């Protein structure tokens, strides 16, 4: 007999079945009793940090992202019972917390919205931020909250330790103004940042300030401990000019000269006895103030340079000891000669009037001497032109308008 050898039918069927099993679509995994198991669908909203996370860096914040076909309607994040502010994108696909999170705190997240069919969807989660070993805080805010100040007043924020990541801290400083004007921060030292407008504040301006520094990472391992609030009100535009060559002082209120007076400025001869020229700000005042030659290192009563006396109605305009004050002993020289140790001497009547109506932050511009006011001499911040002032910002830009 010729042709192909005969093969049993069972062997043929076994081969066909084997080929089918190898080349066909994979079967779904079977559950108990052969039931098909369906892979879980991804959540409608992804929450970062993930649910149950611990030791979360507070400066990384919270993000909620909607899956394709879903939209966010509302996100509520709470930290120890307090609401965490955030921003929902216009396309309603993402939500992000506005500021750093509170360290060492349990957070809960509830995201609600709708799927592609419009059915409501809710996703929840929770996590805990790390408790830092080292913290920093705002040690002082000048001026005092709600204080009425002059048009030149800076906002001075001082921290309790040096700040390494100045940009991160600066981004956490929120300023709200009743009238929006260009203003910028400037780091005057490792622990201090100062806000100043491009030009003097407009009269009647109101400014609110919040340092959202809780959870901000200022240096490796160093996080902000708490937020701090402040703010002030601006009074009339009180700007005075002291002309040391003409020996006169003129006071303007809202652009109008309201009073002039003869004065006597620093006698010069040495740098210490020369009144500084430039834009000064009123830093404070006292009645009386004890003035002495100790600031020059002269404490021997037998030294001809020695002096110590109580001065009435003294208005401080620099950190180096310059005041506008009452000087009844120099009435004959006022308006004619400069004889003081650097202060602006005035008559008792004018000094009392000036003292009574002056606010911190009022402007006193001195002209006519060869010693410029140093930027770091008290509040000499207006000595810097605007471009150099902005350059001192860690972000290198004014506040967003």
TrEMBL record:
<dbReference type="GO" id="GO:0005576">
    <property type="term" value="C:extracellular region"/>
</dbReference>
<dbReference type="GO" id="GO:0071972">
    <property type="term" value="F:peptidoglycan L,D-transpeptidase activity"/>
</dbReference>
<dbReference type="GO" id="GO:0016746">
    <property type="term" value="F:acyltransferase activity"/>
</dbReference>
<dbReference type="GO" id="GO:0008360">
    <property type="term" value="P:regulation of cell shape"/>
</dbReference>
<dbReference type="InterPro" id="IPR005490">
    <property type="entry name" value="LD_TPept_cat_dom"/>
</dbReference>
<dbReference type="GO" id="GO:0018104">
    <property type="term" value="P:peptidoglycan-protein cross-linking"/>
</dbReference>
<keyword id="KW-0012">Acyltransferase</keyword>
<protein>
    <submittedName>
        <fullName>L,D-transpeptidase 2</fullName>
        <ecNumber>2.3.2.-</ecNumber>
    </submittedName>
</protein>
<dbReference type="GO" id="GO:0071555">
    <property type="term" value="P:cell wall organization"/>
</dbReference>
<dbReference type="InterPro" id="IPR050979">
    <property type="entry name" value="LD-transpeptidase"/>
</dbReference>
<keyword id="KW-0133">Cell shape</keyword>
<keyword id="KW-0732">Signal</keyword>
<keyword id="KW-0808">Transferase</keyword>
<keyword id="KW-0961">Cell wall biogenesis/degradation</keyword>
<keyword id="KW-0573">Peptidoglycan synthesis</keyword>
<comment type="pathway">
    <text>Cell wall biogenesis; peptidoglycan biosynthesis.</text>
</comment>
<feature type="active site" description="Nucleophile">
    <location>
        <position position="343"/>
    </location>
</feature>
<dbReference type="Pfam" id="PF03734">
    <property type="entry name" value="YkuD"/>
</dbReference>
<feature type="domain" description="L,D-TPase catalytic">
    <location>
        <begin position="238"/>
        <end position="367"/>
    </location>
</feature>
<dbReference type="InterPro" id="IPR038063">
    <property type="entry name" value="Transpep_catalytic_dom"/>
</dbReference>
<feature type="signal peptide">
    <location>
        <begin position="1"/>
        <end position="20"/>
    </location>
</feature>
<feature type="active site" description="Proton donor/acceptor">
    <location>
        <position position="325"/>
    </location>
</feature>
<dbReference type="Pfam" id="PF17964">
    <property type="entry name" value="Big_10"/>
</dbReference>
<dbReference type="InterPro" id="IPR041280">
    <property type="entry name" value="Big_10"/>
</dbReference>
């Amino acid at each position: 007999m010729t042709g192909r050898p005969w093969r049993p039918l069972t062997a043929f069927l076994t081969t066909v079945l084997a080929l089918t099993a190898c080349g066909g679509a994979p079967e779904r995994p079977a559950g108990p009793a052969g039931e098909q198991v369906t892979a879980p669908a991804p959540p409608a909203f992804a929450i970062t940090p993930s649910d149950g996370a611990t030791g979360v860096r507070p400066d990384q914040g919270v993000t909620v992202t909607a899956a394709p076909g879903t939209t966010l309607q509302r996100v509520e994040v709470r930290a120890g019972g307090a609401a965490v502010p955030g921003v929902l994108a216009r396309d309603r696909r993402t939500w992000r917390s506005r500021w750093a999170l509170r360290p060492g705190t349990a957070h809960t997240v509830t995201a609600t919205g709708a799927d592609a069919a419009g059915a409501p969807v809710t996703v929840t989660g929770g996590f805990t931020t790390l408790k830092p070993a080292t913290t920093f805080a705002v040690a002082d805010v000048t001026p005092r909250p709600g204080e009425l100040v002059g048009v030149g007043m800076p906002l001075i924020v001082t921290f309790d330790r040096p700040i390494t990541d100045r940009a991160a801290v600066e981004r956490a400083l929120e300023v709200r103004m009743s009238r929006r004007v260009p203003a910028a921060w400037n780091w005057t030292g490792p622990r201090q940042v100062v806000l100043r407008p491009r030009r003097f504040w407009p009269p009647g301006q109101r400014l609110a300030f919040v340092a959202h520094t809780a959870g901000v990472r200022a240096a490796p391992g160093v996080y902000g401990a708490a937020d701090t609030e402040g703010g002030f009100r601006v009074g009339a535009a009180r700007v005075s000019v002291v002309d040391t060559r003409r020996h006169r002082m003129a006071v303007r209120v809202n652009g109008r000269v309201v009073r002039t007076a003869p004065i006597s400025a620093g006698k010069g001869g040495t740098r210490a006895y020369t009144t500084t020229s430039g834009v000064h700000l009123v830093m404070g005042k006292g009645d009386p103030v004890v003035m002495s030659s100790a600031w020059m290192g002269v404490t021997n009563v037998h030294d001809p340079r020695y002096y110590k006396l109580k001065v009435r109605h003294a208005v401080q305009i620099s950190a180096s000891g310059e005041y506008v004050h009452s000087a009844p002993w120099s009435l004959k020289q006022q308006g004619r000669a400069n004889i003081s140790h650097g202060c602006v001497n005035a008559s008792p009547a004018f000094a009392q009037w000036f003292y009574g109506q002056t606010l911190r932050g009022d402007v006193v511009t001195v002209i006519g001497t060869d010693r410029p006011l140093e930027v770091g001499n008290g509040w000499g911040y207006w000595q810097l032109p605007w471009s150099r002032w902005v350059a001192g910002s860690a972000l290198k830009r004014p506040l967003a308008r």
